[in-house]
Amino acid sequence: MPEKRIGILYLIDTLDQRGGTELNLYRLLAGLDADIFQPLVCPLQPPESIMIQMLREKEIEVLPLCLHSIFSLSAFRWAFHLRNLIRERDIRIVQTIHFGSDIMGALCKRLWNDPFVISSRRDMGFNETTWLHRLLRRCTGKWIDLVLTNSCALRALIEKREKIPQKKIAMIYNGVEIPDPADVRKKTELRSRLGLPADTFVVGCVANIQPIKGFEYLIRAILHLIGKGLDIHLLLIGGIEKRMESAEGYYNSLAAMVRAEGQEGRIHFLGVRTDVGDLLSSLDVFILPSLSEGFSNAILEAMAAGVPVIATAVGGNGEAVIAEETGFLVAPADDDAIAAAVQRLYHSPSLATAMGAAARRRVQERFNENRMVKSMEALYVSHIRPHR
């Protein structure tokens, strides 16, 4: 093991919200062995945020770049600035997260061929729809030393779509903290704080509100079940995705759907919350209706809380949820399938309890935070190059 701490620079497009990618990075950095690794985080945006404050409270250095677009002359100036930063801080590894940072990291690698660059892919590329995205991915992919994915499904997609050799792709699953199990009294207290009856059936979803998350199918499913007389409440936990222009209009359409049925008292838009763990513990079922997903932290957090999961069979969801054991997998964009799965658990509390317990065990064994951090540390050490 090297005596000097290993400098790692993390480039990420944005740290403006508590999304799955941002929280996964936070957990990693908080768990890294401080005697061995010296992390430095450079978000392209914003200059300040709650996430940046959270990292600094853990004594992790954050230097925002305030770069509005990688398609500008200032991006090249920042590339030279990063090169100086890499030399001054003796950075041995650069890990990039999201499209803009991937391109910046690849550019630095192409210009100076140092240090080792890891492109960390977190989703199935649902936002990369233009010819320019595809061209830049294809051109810069060969400059990256290693592509790191968080699911086998994503690894297979990147290998096929971007023609990246399998030996250049690694996979490490996300990991989450395992909370103490919530007892019945705590669950009742949590529901009371939300103004919910103790004995109602509560389902929920944690995700930033944007079209790719498929909220309309979840809402339609729950409206259908309420119409059939089931005593159900739905908690939608998450803010509007600020990076997407269409997200606010999408949110308005969802709220209008609920108002049209007069169900504002049963379908609750809770917005951004800092008590997500408590909210998950108050649920009977967690539902993720995404149309595309890399590997969901929200699914893991719900499972860790002992909650059965209904998720769409997209991306890495099927690698976390074992159908008929820890929950159900349903087809995307299928509100009837969501409704059927919810109804099955509604009418069988013992099945829901058994699935929740199995889900918690699975996360404890396969997707715990410590396992993720140790795997990342081993990956870093294995790719340290000797100084020139």
Rg estimate, integer Å: 22 Å
CATH architecture of the largest domain: 3-Layer(aba) Sandwich
Strand order of the largest sheet: 3-2-1-4-5-6-7
Largest sheet: number of strands, sense, barrel closure = 7 strands, parallel
Q: Determine the fraction of residues in helical runs and give it as a percent range.
A: 40-55%
**Total helix count?**
15
The fold-level CATH name of the largest domain is: Rossmann fold
Strand content: 15-25%
Q: Give the rounded overall mean pLDDT.
A: 91
The CATH first-level class of the largest domain comes to: Alpha Beta
Low-confidence stretches: none
Distance between the termini: 18 Å
Coarse shape = globular
- Spell out the helices and strands N to C: EHEHEHEHEHEHEHEHEHEHEHEHEHHH
Q: Could you walk me through the main structural features you see in this protein, from its secondary elements to its overall organization?
A:
The protein is α/β, with parallel strands linked by helices. The protein has two domains: 6-175 and 369-382, Glycogen Phosphorylase B (Rossmann fold, 3-Layer(aba) Sandwich), CATH 3.40.50; 184-366, Glycogen Phosphorylase B (Rossmann fold), CATH 3.40.50.2000. The protein is 44% helix and 18% strand. It is built from 15 helices and 13 strands. It has helices at residues 20-31, 50-57, 73-88, 99-112, 131-141, 152-162, 184-193, 215-227, 247-260, 276-281, 297-304, 317-320, 335-346, 349-366, 369-382, and strands spanning 6-14, 37-45, 61-62, 91-97, 116-120, 146-149, 169-171, 201-206, 232-237, 267-271, 285-288, 309-312, 327-330. Strands 3-2-1-4-5-6-7 form a seven-stranded parallel β-sheet, sandwiched between helices. The longest helix has 18 residues, at 349-366. The mean pLDDT is 91.
